[in-house]
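Sample pair:
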Amino acid sequence: ILPRHTPMLALLGVGSLRLQTREGVRAFAVQEGFAEIAPDRVTVAARRVEDGAQIEPEAAAAQVRALREKAAGAGGAAGPAQAELAYARARARAARDARSPSGGAIG
């Protein structure tokens, strides 16, 4: 967010969130919440948030594979299994982004 950005409120779903700080880029897995953008700060409140630097990439990838199999066994029906899979993917992405020299930056 640039300095003096117009205030706004955004709903968050499930995904990875990258935060540019003076020290570099940090990555987080986020599940359902909101972000409040003020002229001088950003506040994120979510049901679940995990720092990508604290997530073991191999374990996160294994969890995605296991949950894909579980979801396939459920016939791909929407519900708790799909929600678990979406968050597992967000965790795997945050773990990757936290270890990337560019922080997973696009471009």
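The chain is about 35% helix and 35% strand.
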